[in-house]
Amino acid sequence: MGKIIFYEDRDFQGKSHECSGDNADLHGFFVRCNSIRVEGGCWVIYERSNYMGHQYYLKRGEYPDYQSWLGLNDSIRSCHSIPQHRGSYRIRLYDREEFRGQMKEYVNDCSNVQESFHTNSVLSCNVLDGYWIFFEEPGFKGNQYFLRPGEYRRSASWGSPNTKVGSLKKIVDFY
């Protein structure tokens, strides 16, 4: 089972709160989050309650300030652990909504979707196997979006305000 500890101040100082499962609302536990220690499992943390806002993927390790997890600010309001996945990874990207248009299937990470798919505009996708992270920029940079197995008929369904996917990475067991 995973465990994550949030700290109000940098370098693991100040008030702290520990989670070992999903928590849709962390608002009552701390005012701000400036450092995090992940002692087990993989996690997605969210800027706002109910798994909304900017998303950040964290694996086991120490994050002494919010810039170390590429955070835009010190606001973390919800989180969930990522279940272990053993098996294959498969995702299909489409350049139109509702799984129409050009399709490209991936089984491995892709550092530059535009070079591979000849577009960085992804309007729908189908996660067939495994857990994935979309990044808005090539090279696994920019805003992140966590995807679990399922159908995403529109880009908004994975939480993105736009259709830009620059790179994608499968979440491999880090337990």
UniProtKB/TrEMBL annotation:
<dbReference type="InterPro" id="IPR050252">
    <property type="entry name" value="Beta/Gamma-Crystallin"/>
</dbReference>
<dbReference type="GO" id="GO:0002088">
    <property type="term" value="P:lens development in camera-type eye"/>
</dbReference>
<dbReference type="GO" id="GO:0007601">
    <property type="term" value="P:visual perception"/>
</dbReference>
<comment type="subunit">
    <text>Monomer.</text>
</comment>
<dbReference type="InterPro" id="IPR011024">
    <property type="entry name" value="G_crystallin-like"/>
</dbReference>
<protein>
    <recommendedName>
        <fullName>Beta/gamma crystallin 'Greek key' domain-containing protein</fullName>
    </recommendedName>
</protein>
<comment type="similarity">
    <text>Belongs to the beta/gamma-crystallin family.</text>
</comment>
<feature type="domain" description="Beta/gamma crystallin 'Greek key'">
    <location>
        <begin position="2"/>
        <end position="40"/>
    </location>
</feature>
<dbReference type="Pfam" id="PF00030">
    <property type="entry name" value="Crystall"/>
</dbReference>
<keyword id="KW-0273">Eye lens protein</keyword>
<feature type="domain" description="Beta/gamma crystallin 'Greek key'">
    <location>
        <begin position="130"/>
        <end position="172"/>
    </location>
</feature>
<dbReference type="GO" id="GO:0005212">
    <property type="term" value="F:structural constituent of eye lens"/>
</dbReference>
<dbReference type="InterPro" id="IPR001064">
    <property type="entry name" value="Beta/gamma_crystallin"/>
</dbReference>
<keyword id="KW-0677">Repeat</keyword>
<comment type="function">
    <text>Crystallins are the dominant structural components of the vertebrate eye lens.</text>
</comment>
<feature type="domain" description="Beta/gamma crystallin 'Greek key'">
    <location>
        <begin position="41"/>
        <end position="83"/>
    </location>
</feature>
